[in-house]
Specification:
Radius of gyration: 17 Å
Structural class: alpha+beta
Strand order of the largest sheet: 2-3-4-1-13-16-15-14
Number of strands: 16
Low-confidence stretches: none
Shape: globular
Mean pLDDT: 90
Number of helices: 4
Pfam family, one: Glyoxalase_6
CATH architecture of the largest domain: Roll
CATH superfamily of the largest domain: 2,3-Dihydroxybiphenyl 1,2-Dioxygenase, domain 1
CATH topology of the largest domain: 2,3-Dihydroxybiphenyl 1,2-Dioxygenase, domain 1
CATH class of the largest domain: Alpha Beta
Number of domains: 2
Domain VOC: 125-239
Distance between the termini: 18 Å
Protein name: Bleomycin resistance protein
Order of helices and strands: EHEEEEHEEEEHEEEEHEEE
Largest sheet: 8 strands, mixed
Length: 240
């Protein structure tokens, strides 16, 4: 069996404050994790968690990944934007065109996200978090499809997207050009190994698919830290 996506992790200067922001925007329950981190729980068992870890990763340009939030109507889009602004978001310009209907915002820790207009066919039936949109190559899309066992739902012009067989949020990669990486990512994937699967063997499988080892996690052997083919950090949790 493949690794499972346990969480999308944010390194945040004020992790608890950022968790409250995203809890308010998404309407997800917030709780404290085992390691002093803040954790948002998905509304159903098929979704991933969102973890907010303390850290001071400097902002060196746009993040390599951001959330695309969906809308059921123009009014719903306006309501989402208004709620996010009230909770501490702000409008930003990342080069979007005037005719584009999505709204680009930054959360209180300067992480970009988009509120997508209603009627977007690509994100239909994905849920409120329609996509985790990533800057990345076709190769890394293929890697994550094999790593998670999620099928490719888009593979065209070097753009790729995968989605869990159970549906929900898509993970997308926009293809070239990919901005150079300057320092650790603020957002990273955290995987978990299913019960009965050998952890070391699974890490070896990920390496055979193109990942690279970087060392041991901060929790003294709880995680392996690896890099995907585009050099993005990700963690593999040991079974608890």
């Amino acid at each position: 069996m493949s690794s499972q996506l346990f969480a999308i992790c944010f390194r945040a200067t004020r992790s608890s404050d950022l968790a409250r922001f995203w809890s308010g925007v998404l309407g997800w329950e917030s709780t404290e994790g085992d390691d002093g981190d803040a954790l948002l729980l998905p509304p159903d068992s098929a979704g991933f968690r969102i973890r907010f870890l303390p850290g001071r990763v400097p902002k060196t340009g746009q993040n390599r990944a951001h959330f695309d939030l969906t809308s059921t109507s123009a009014e719903h889009q306006q309501q989402t934007v208004a709620r996010a602004l009230e909770l501490g978001a702000r409008h930003i310009d990342v080069g979007q065109l005037p005719e584009e209907e999505h709204v680009v915002l930054a959360d209180p820790d300067d992480n970009e996200f988009c509120v997508i207009e209603a009627g977007n066919r690509f994100l239909a039936d994905t849920g409120f978090i329609g996509a985790l949109a990533c800057d990345g190559t076709q190769e890394v899309g293929y890697f994550w499809s094999e790593a998670l066992g999620w099928p490719l739902v888009w593979d065209q012009d070097q753009e790729t997207a995968i989605q869990s067989p159970d549906g929900g949020t898509k993970i997308t990669w926009g293809g070239p050009p990919v901005a150079p990486k300057a320092g650790p990512n603020r957002l990273h994937f955290e995987l978990t190994v299913p019960a009965g699967v050998d952890w070391e063997a699974e890490v070896d499988r990920l390496v055979s698919l193109g990942a690279k080892r970087t060392g041991t996690g901060a929790s003294e052997g709880v995680e392996a830290l690896l890099l995907d083919p585009d050099g993005n950090e990700f963690a593999v949790r040991r079974p608890q």
